[in-house]
Design goal:
The chain is an alpha/beta fold and about 725 residues long. It contains 22 helices and 18 strands. Helices cover about 45% and strands about 15% of the residues. The N terminus is likely disordered.
Length: about 725
């Protein structure tokens, strides 16, 4: 390569997700974008609104963006019906040749329009075509310009004309102007028709074989819902740089208003952005480029070269939609959750005795935690007041303060002042607790974390919700311990990802009154202390870990929670001792999987948890905080084997680390009881620094004792 090497640095690991975003942005519409290992060319299906891209390799970002931009331009402005009809304007025998001419002229028009609509693409188009010219994608090394028809030279002029001078006779330059000034598809057909008539004497007489080819053309066109568009790789038009031809620059300016006007006519769909209300779809007309006098030889060379960029060894690209959740079935109301438990307790003398002990145990726990919670709340209020003072500004109103006028000789500040306080951020928390069987040995310690979390949030009036996610059935007529009630939980289709039935037990809420909260806390304390068989009803039994399903359901819960409490910031905490028990990622064993919500796709490199977490953050705007309860002496594999990290974990009982999809991720020792002793004896007016030191001292071996509460306070203080 020569001086354009810097523009063609190959990036084999291009983010396909980013190209999906690019396509939707260019189209001003939420297109569905898919990559297919079977696709030979890029194509667009107007009915399904699906842009299909091949799996390419050894391709620069500029080239990738150019190809995407080209195909979106076809989707916006090339009318499928008119395209189909135009192919046979010169008869079936000449349909392949006329198709090539229309391709070239239409390429120049739609790419001129996409560059006028999105000027940022100009650099990508110029860099991409410079790269392709240097790599001889047009087959010019084995031919001379004099051997090319005017059609092929026009193709080169509007693709690489700024990079490579293309010769035209004086009487031929009129065709450059005519191609550069096409505005509608009807203009394209008119210019193409005249070009065909110009080269017609050079064409061979129609014979049976061309007719057969034309018949094959028509047969393939009519197979399916519509006409296929030329591959974007062989159909990008126009030059881009300050060195563009005058004609290209002028036509770009003239076409921009028209393209924008088409968009303004109907901003909800791309259908009306075209001349006839449709765009080209995925059915491709076979090309016979290079035949009949060599018309389209540059197009044929381009198609063959781009086809070699396909990754023939690419895995199958598998896409699946995340189904909508039936929340009325998934969420078990807190009243039903706690009534079911209490009704079970009343039926057994042993359970009633254990429950009475739980009442006394909760009272003791609340009393021990009260000083901790109160001091943390007090310090939070102080920090909140200090933050408000920082956000307070004083401005002059322009109204004279008559009380100050007597001091006019000593002060020029005679105007009334007005205090303005910038809005602070309202926080809310939603916590999802793993209710799986592996949690049974640490459920008591975990429940203590939740109870102290609830006590603090109520003290400082912060909205919160706590759910337990479980695979256990809550169907009244179901006697099975475990139940996959997927049909009731999800609105599944043929393209849905595989999801399982599960439920969310609504345990605690800031909307509960004092009596309801006391009952709920007592029930949870009882469950934590009485794990004997028969102590809880079957609905409260622990099962597997439907974490992926929970994250998907949270996409509905969080927006509703935010709206109900008028919150700016929502923090979502997922508290678990393991990974998801079910794989939601499509193509896990047979190819590359993508999860899709609406029109946006998310790459899956594991069971799908990272993908649905990214989807969750994009959908809700909430932070996704993971707390992993580690029941082993060793750090889990995803933390790495760093010695410093091990020592930190051994010393304080928890570490902050990272994990794909989560905003923050913490690993803490599972069997850690909440400790409050170190805070006893502290004065109510203790400084924040001393309080913090006391917490650290108390946690020298068990800092994880209050990791949930500590993190909640930190989040609200940011």
């Amino acid at each position: 390569m020569n001086n354009t090497t810097r523009n063609s640095v190959q990036t084999p690991n291009i983010s396909r997700t980013s190209k999906d975003v690019l396509a939707r942005l260019l189209a001003s519409e939420n297109l569905i974008v898919e990559h297919s290992s079977d696709a030979a060319t890029a194509s667009f299906d107007t009915n399904a609104r699906i842009l299909t891209l091949p799996v390419w390799q050894d391709m620069s970002n500029s080239l990738y963006d150019m190809l995407v931009g080209h195909e979106v331009a076809h989707a916006l402005w090339t009318p499928s019906d008119e395209w189909r009809d135009s192919m046979y304007l010169k008869g079936e025998a000449h349909a392949p040749i006329f198709k090539q001419i229309v391709n070239i002229v239409e390429d120049a028009r739609i790419e001129r329009m996409i560059k006028a609509k999105f000027p940022g693409l100009r650099r990508d188009f110029f860099a991409a075509y410079s790269d392709l010219a240097d790599r001889d994608f047009f087959g010019l090394n084995d031919t001379t310009m004099d051997d090319l028809t005017i059609v092929d030279r026009l193709n080169l002029e509007f693709k690489i004309g700024s990079h490579t001078p293309i010769p035209f006779a004086a009487d031929e330059r009129v065709w450059i102007d005519r191609v550069a000034t096409t505005k509608t598809f009807a203009d394209v057909v008119a210019v193409s028709s005249d070009l065909f008539d110009l080269i017609a004497p050079e064409l061979d007489s129609p014979e049976d074989s061309p007719e057969d080819s034309a018949d094959q053309d028509q047969e393939q066109d009519e197979d399916g819902d519509g006409v296929g568009m030329p591959a974007p790789s062989n159909e990008s038009g126009g030059d881009d740089s300050d060195e563009d031809t005058e004609a290209d620059g002028e036509s770009g300016e003239s076409d921009a208003p028209e393209g924008d006007q088409q968009d303004d006519n109907n901003t909800t769909s791309m259908h009306d952005d075209t001349d006839d209300g449709e765009s080209a779809d995925s059915r491709e007309i076979p090309s016979q480029a290079g035949s009949n006098g060599g018309v389209g030889s540059t197009m044929q060379s381009f198609e063959e070269a781009v086809n070699e960029l396909r990754d023939m060894d690419a895995k199958e690209q598998v896409y699946a939609d995340v189904p909508a959740a039936n929340m009325d079935h998934i969420v078990i109301d807190s009243r039903k959750v706690h009534t079911t438990l209490f009704d079970h307790v009343k039926q057994s003398d042993r359970c009633r005795k254990s429950y009475n002990e739980a009442v006394r145990g909760l009272a003791q726990f609340e009393n021990e935690s009260k000083k901790t919670v109160n001091m943390m709340a007090q310090q939070f209020m102080r920090r909140q007041a200090a933050d408000e003072q920082q956000r307070t500004s004083i401005s002059q109103t322009g109204v004279l303060d008559t009380n100050k006028m007597i001091n006019y000789k000593w002060s020029e500040d005679l105007f009334l002042r007005h205090e303005e306080i910038a809005d602070g951020k309202n926080h809310g928390f939603v916590l999802f607790l793993d209710w799986s069987a592996s949690m049974s040995n640490i459920i008591n310690e975990t429940i203590q974390q939740l109870l102290q979390f609830a006590m603090f949030c109520r003290k400082v009036n912060v909205p919160f919700e706590v759910y337990a996610f479980t695979s256990q059935s809550w169907n009244d007529d179901d006697d099975l311990q475990y139940h996959d009630d997927a049909q009731s939980c999800w609105q599944q289709t043929d393209t849905s990802a595989r999801v399982h039935g599960f439920h969310l037990m609504h345990l605690l809420s800031s909307t509960m009154n004092n009596r309801q909260m006391k009952t709920a806390m007592t029930n949870l304390f009882y469950v934590g202390t009485d794990r004997a068989y028969g102590g809880v009803p079957r609905q409260w039994h622990m099962g597997s870990t439907p974490l992926n399903e929970t994250i998907v359901a949270a996409m509905d819960i969080i927006p509703a929670f935010r709206a109900a409490n008028d919150l700016q910031i929502v923090n979502t905490i997922f508290l678990t001792d393991g990974d998801a028990s079910s794989n939601i990622a499509p193509g896990h064993y047979r190819g590359k999987g993508y999860l899709r919500k609406g029109t946006k796709s998310y790459s899956c490199d594991d069971g799908g948890t990272a993908a649905v977490l990214e989807m969750f953050k994009d959908t809700t705007g909430s932070k996704a905080i993971g707390i992993y309860l580690n029941d082993s002496k060793r750090l889990p594999y995803f933390c790495g084997l760093d010695d410093d990290l091990k020592q930190e974990y051994k010393k304080q009982g928890w570490i902050a680390t990272s994990r794909d999809g989560y905003t923050e991720y913490f690993v803490m020792k599972a069997q850690t009881k909440v400790e409050n002793d170190a805070l006893q004896g502290l004065d109510k007016d203790v400084s924040y620094t001393r309080l913090k030191n006391a917490f650290m001292k108390a946690s020298s071996g068990r800092v994880a004792s209050r990791v949930v509460l500590n993190r909640v306070v930190d989040l609200m203080a940011v």
